[in-house]
Write a structure and sequence with these properties.
heterodimer, A: about 375 residues, alpha/beta, Rossmann fold, 2 domains, five-stranded parallel β-sheet, 12 helices, elongated, B: about 300 residues, two-stranded antiparallel ribbon, 4 strands
Chain lengths: ~375, ~300
């Protein structure tokens, strides 16, 4: 009798398994390479969100397939192809760098597979794309926040430092200039750098000659840290303001004392986290990693959360959880999603409308300054 | 550009050029004896910087850590020769070149897997990061030390090449490896010495690089290696003094392009390589190079 029960139980289990599927989410991140910190921190937050929820209400399990693109555009596009052809994923999450997301977007669009980038802020990422959505705000907003913060604090002249290799930086510089000039500020000079460069002494000398009220640095953290260090070494005291590309521990580790006072706009600061969702995430993050929760991780968790919500909506509508069209429609119609980085609504372009924070380095830590609403 | 800024850029250029020069010497010496463009050379520089970084992180005094870095890099240099290049001594040169590229990828990826790819902060001692003010010019002590050490090293290498028996053997090897063997000289031993010198200099270059730009990562050797290679070709590959001249020219070009046209700063590498092409158009053997089929230093 006992045997029979176990057979029945096993059969029931098997039967149950036959119905519950596995839904795959492809994740493309720069886990190695120059901007590896973006990928590593994104993955850290994604892991927490995944541990909190990896089953759908109909019993389907969610599986993450993570591919490293080494921060390279070509690799990023290849990664998407691989995820679609070999792993047969239903949704794609990633990348961080706008240049890489832009390389991925056409591939996803062509395969009619929904893609959500959690952290690429260049407007062109979602432009004219039906299947690409994002969980973050865009650079015109971010640039405006930078400009507003500078002007409000009495800095009326600026030198803009642009990373010529990064679409993110080029777009952000444009946005900053427009907003800064519209608010009555004056752009003294634009200085170009290349990601991967280490020597900025010549640029710093040019910067020193211009002697602006503020330096708007629109590139990423490895160059930010070295440039601010070389600037301070050369006696340049001008404050620096950057955006979400600079707020990484490496800024302080490499920049040292020179990084003190470096301001930047960001998506998230745990000191500003007020919702229950955000608090639960921050607690789990502290428990697991024993360090402050970063913004890339929080964004990745939000991207993942939005995907899961879209899948749940599909199930509710009586569709399969891996129905690409349905997931995409739901992603694009996201409204007032209570995320970790704030309340997210997706507009008609596929961009998230949400608030930004301004942080500054203080005593080697990222201190919260203020929040700015759209 | 006023005089202050000009002088400031001059010292910056000298400092950057020295680092290229140190690495270029290794390229040029290995090329001289083996006719091999050792593409793993830039990565040996990375190894030197990393070993020094690990030394200081473990609490070893900086000077000792640098020494360990130099010895470790020399060891890696010898190993790559023994394992990868020696079995191919008689193989076509192209096989050797491809192997060198393979070693380069191997070292980069090995260090990425072992130590991660996020840039690490390199802590230099106080006395190397001190900054002097001379009028409006800011002189980090390193921009004085680096070119000085580079010139001393150049003198040392030239002395070894022209005043010692080993140097004579190295020069002989560059002329004709077969004849040298017939004379009873252990060619592999001499090649090993060349790799030791080249790798040690690369390690010193790596440490200088890390002191000047305190952020090190496993891929840091790629672009620096490429520039040093360009410097070696510019100066005339095979010529040690040429490598140093090439290094300085490249350093100055890079710095002054940015200084004079800040809005073109993003294209400084393009300018540096354009300059290389220009020189090679008029002097295909480089500034101090001679006929490629003749050995020399």
């Amino acid at each position: 009798m006992k045997k029979l029960t176990s057979i029945v139980a096993a059969a029931a289990l098997l039967g149950g398994m036959a119905y519950a599927k596995e839904v795959k989410i492809g994740v493309v991140l720069p886990m190695t390479g120059n901007i590896a910190a973006f990928g590593q921190t994104s993955k850290g937050g994604l892991d927490i969100a995944y541990e909190q929820k990896n089953k759908l209400s109909n019993g389907d399990t969610v599986k993450l397939v993570v591919v490293d693109d080494r921060g390279d555009k070509v690799e990023a596009a290849t990664a998407v192809k691989r995820l679609l052809d070999k792993d047969k994923v239903s949704v794609i999450l990633g990348e961080v760098a706008s240049s890489n997301s832009m390389a991925m977007a056409p591939v996803a669009e062509k395969a009619k597979t929904p893609m959500i980038t959690h952290a690429s802020t260049n407007p062109r990422v979602t432009k004219d794309k039906k299947y690409v959505t994002r969980a973050c705000f865009i650079d015109p907003f971010q640039g405006a926040v930078m400009a507003k913060y500078a002007i409000d604090n009495g800095m009326k002249t600026a030198v803009v430092v642009t990373d010529a290799k990064q679409d993110y930086s080029v777009g952000l510089s444009k946005a900053f200039k427009k907003a800064f000039e519209a608010a009555g500020g004056k752009i003294e000079k634009t200085i170009l750098i290349n990601s991967g460069d280490k020597d900025f002494n010549a640029q710093v000398a040019a910067l020193k000659a211009a002697n602006p009220g503020i330096v708007a640095f629109t590139g990423y953290y490895p160059e930010a840290a070295l440039m601010v260090k070389q600037a301070r070494d050369m006696g340049v005291k001008t404050p620096f303001i950057g955006a979400d590309g600079v707020g990484f521990p490496e800024l302080v580790k490499i920049g040292g004392k020179a990084a003190e006072g470096f301001m930047y706009t960001d998506h998230f600061n745990e000191a500003a986290a007020s919702s229950a969702e955000a608090k639960a995430y921050v607690d789990a993050f502290h428990k697991k990693y024993n360090k402050p929760a970063d913004s890339m991780g929080a964004l990745a968790a939000d991207g993942y959360g939005m995907i899961l919500q879209a899948m749940e909506s599909c199930i509710k509508a009586g569709k399969a959880s891996d129905d690409k069209e349905c997931i995409n429609t739901n992603l694009r119609n996201t409204k007032d999603y209570k995320g970790i980085t704030g309340v997210i609504t997706i507009n008609k372009n596929g961009d998230a409308v949400k608030s930004a924070v301004v942080n500054a380095v203080k005593d080697g830590k990222f201190a919260y300054k203020t929040s700015v609403n759209p | 550009m006023n005089l202050d800024i000009f002088l400031q850029q001059l010292v910056n250029g000298a400092s950057l050029g020295s680092m290229y020069a140190l690495i270029a010497i290794g390229y040029t010496m290995v090329y001289g004896v083996l006719r091999l463009i050792n593409f793993a050379h830039g990565d040996i520089m990375m190894v030197g910087a990393f070993l020094t970084f690990f030394g200081t992180s473990a609490g070893i005094p900086f000077e000792l850590a640098v020494l360990l870095g130099i010895i470790g890099s020399a060891a890696v240099g010898i190993l790559t020769d023994k394992i990868a290049y020696k079995p191919l001594r008689d193989a076509p040169k192209i096989s050797l070149l491809i192997t060198a590229i393979g070693i380069s990828f191997f070292l980069e990826n090995l260090f990425t897997v072992l130590f991660g790819s996020t840039p690490k902060a390199f802590a230099a001692p106080e006395y190397l990061t001190k900054i002097f003010h001379v009028g409006e010019i800011y002189l980090p002590i390193s921009v004085i030390i680096i070119p000085t050490v580079t010139l001393l090293i150049l003198a040392l290498v030239l002395w070894i090449l022209y005043k010692t028996k080993y140097g004579m053997a190295i020069r002989a090897l560059a002329f004709d490896i077969q004849t040298v063997k017939l004379m009873g000289i252990d060619a592999d031993r001499i090649i090993m010495i060349v790799f030791i010198i080249g790798s040690a200099l690369a390690a010193i270059g790596g440490v200088f690089y890390a002191v000047s730009y305190p952020s090190i990562d496993p891929l840091m050797g790629i672009i620096v290696g490429l520039k040093a290679f360009a410097a070696a070709v510019l100066g005339g590959i095979g010529s040690v003094a040429g490598a140093v001249v090439g290094g300085f020219i490249l350093g100055f070009t890079e710095i002054f392009v940015v200084a004079m046209f800040p809005e073109l700063g993003g294209y400084k590498d393009a300018f540096a390589f354009f300059f290389l092409i220009l020189v090679l158009l008029f002097r295909p053997t480089g500034i101090m190079g001679q006929d490629l089929e003749r050995g020399r230093f």
